Known about the structure:
Blueprint: E1 5-9, H1 13-24, E2 28-32, H2 36-55, H3 61-69, E3 71-74, H4 77-81, E4 86-89, H5 95-108, E5 114-117, H6 124-128, E6 137-142, E7 151-156, H7 162-174, E8 178-182, H8 190-206, H9 212-223, H10 229-236, H11 238-252, H12 261-268
The structure holds acetoacetyl-coenzyme A and NADPH dihydro-nicotinamide-adenine-dinucleotide phosphate.
Pathway: Lipid metabolism; butanoate metabolism
Family: Belongs to the 3-hydroxyacyl-CoA dehydrogenase family.
GO molecular function: 3-hydroxybutyryl-CoA dehydrogenase activity
Amino acid sequence: MEWKRVSVIGAGQMGSGIAQVAAQAGYQVVLLDTTEEQVQAGVKRIADLLARNVEKGKLSAEEREGILDRIATTTQLEEAAQEADLVIEAVVEKLEVKAEIFRRLDQCCPNHTILASNTSSLPITEIAAATKRPEQVIGMHFMNPVPVMKLVEVIRGLATSEDVFRLVVAAAERMGKTPVEVNDYPGFVSNRILMPMINEAIYAVYEGVATPEAIDQVMKLGMNHPMGPLTLADFIGLDTCLYIMETLHEGFGDSKYRPCPLLRKYVKAGWLGRKSGRGFYQYS
Length: 284
Ligand SMILES: CC(=O)CC(=O)SCCNC(=O)CCNC(=O)[C@H](O)C(C)(C)COP(=O)(O)OP(=O)(O)OC[C@H]1O[C@@H](n2cnc3c(N)ncnc32)[C@H](O)[C@@H]1OP(=O)(O)O
Ligand SMILES: NC(=O)C1=CN([C@@H]2O[C@H](COP(=O)(O)OP(=O)(O)OC[C@H]3O[C@@H](n4cnc5c(N)ncnc54)[C@H](OP(=O)(O)O)[C@@H]3O)[C@@H](O)[C@H]2O)C=CC1
């Protein structure tokens, strides 16, 4: 079956990026967030990035208009659900919030609709269990920034069907991505490896080993990482980093994954990184 419509739930940094690459791939997209302001902020992010691509000569002004025309917006889940072939959820990294969204999507989507989560770490099998169609639920984990990064981790839940897996791999490829299959364990592969490194960098700040600037320089100049771990943590969002560490800690029951107290403190203070204007660095 040829898919035409992709709905994206959550218009934050990941949801807006996913909506952009889906519209660039020719899908009709519906982008949803809880308020009109959030949805419009997501659309503005897409419009600005596409305008920069026009300036760079990578896209024509007509192509930009075409992509933006393919993105409709809503704040009503029923509206996002009603005609979707594929729904990709990208809301906050909390199991109870995602499970409730999947429960509602299951009720309002057509029978054929596939429900994917962009979760960074949470169990796909448990998200799927909130629906009556667990064979049509799957993990589709894009990387940030979505328009640039090539990888999509594709994660099968216990019940995910082979057909659904193949359709989702094909959709990721159509969006210009390279899908890699991984199994349903906390943090999958990407964040099981990346996030303990970031957490360790935060411990190094906490224990006074070096300043954030020095730690980032060591990893950039010494290991050729494009961003130092603390700049990357601010870029991902410190709330998201904390939720991922909590999932690893709880999921494996191993103290090596305990989140650094400084990370908790920053999140409690509302220092969420780039998106809130302050994290390990200041942005305004
Ligand atoms: C937490 C999770 O669950 C999983 C994750 O996503 S973990 C995070 C994974 N991502 C990373 O590790 C990113 C690491 N950082 C990088 O790769 C690079 O710093 C970067 C690609 C973000 C920027 O690259 P750079 O060379 O330093 O900067 P710059 O030259 O300005 O940008 C390179 C390109 O990326 C684009 N770009 C940069 N930031 C962007 C953004 N936020 N959104 C969209 N495009 C962006 C630029 O427009 C530019 O595009 P062109 O080549 O078409 O001109
Ligand atoms: N940041 C990253 O680098 C990556 C993140 N991810 C995953 O993507 C997901 C989203 O992350 P990210 O985009 O960074 O987060 P953001 O905080 O940027 O965006 C999340 C958006 O979802 C909205 N939202 C929250 N609850 C609901 C709801 N019930 N219904 C509709 N919208 C809702 C939020 O609105 P409000 O602000 O009003 O709550 C916000 O606009 C998370 O699961 C994260 O783990 C995956 C890969 C990389």
